[in-house]
Specification:
The chain is mainly alpha-helical and 189 residues long. It has a single domain, classed as Growth Hormone, Chain: A, CATH 1.20.1250. It contains 9 helices and 2 strands, in the order H-E-E-H-H-H-H-H-H-H-H. Helix 5 packs antiparallel against helix 6. The radius of gyration is 19 Å and the shape is elongated. The two termini are 15 Å apart. Its main location: membrane. InterPro entries: MFS, MFS_dom, MFS_trans_sf. It is a multi-pass membrane protein.
Length: 189
């Protein structure tokens, strides 16, 4: 359910500036200039200045959900592999997803650089949903191998999507402050 909500938000709600949706900025003065510090589609606010803003609260909620998915459901897969197929095959499956995870993180970064953060989030969410689907059949060895390969790719959702999302919103000067504030939410999940 969390995955579906996150996917719908990234597809239909997440926009970097109101003009992308054909809207005007809510905070503007008479001369048409905005009072918010947004230039070049990046936010010039520190993490502390962002705390009361709705977009930052949505970011914190999203990071909380990513932490829940990564620490909750995904964290149980190694034990499930070992219980279903024994220690030897379970160890092999864990090695497979650990190796694939390196390339999954690189692929996610490439998708972000090439197509943008929306495509990276859609890829992560789609891969993650396939992992959960194949884990339903993980008692069969072929499905466990497919789940391990997809899990290696989907594991980047917790480690890579958060920093990419914050980097797409904030400038280099404010990235550390904003990411530090959002990382706390991810760890709470």
């Amino acid at each position: 359910m969390l995955l579906a909500i996150g996917l719908l938000i990234s597809l239909f709600i997440y926009q970097r500036v109101p003009e992308d949706k054909g809207l005007t900025k809510l905070i503007s003065n008479q001369s048409g200039e905005t009072q918010t510090k947004i230039q070049n589609r990046q936010i010039y606010l520190s993490g502390q200045e962002s705390l009361g803003k709705p977009f930052f609260l949505m970011l914190l909620i999203g990071m909380l959900f990513a932490g829940l998915v990564n620490g909750g459901g995904l964290g149980q897969f190694p034990r499930a592999f070992s219980l279903a197929h024994g220690a030897v095959f379970g160890g092999l499956l864990i090695s497979i997803y650990s190796l694939v995870g390196i390339f999954g993180k690189l692929l996610l970064g490439w998708l972000n650089d090439t197509f943008g953060i929306k495509v990276a989030i859609i890829y992560s969410a789609g891969t993650l949903s396939l992992v959960f689907f194949f884990m339903l059949f993980s008692n069969q060895l072929w499905a466990a191998f497919v789940a391990a390969i997809l899990y290696g790719s989907a594991n980047a959702i917790g480690a890579v999507v958060g920093p990419l999302l914050v980097a797409s919103l904030y400038t280099v000067e404010n990235y550390g402050d904003a990411y530090g504030s959002s990382k706390v939410s991810s760890k709470q999940g």
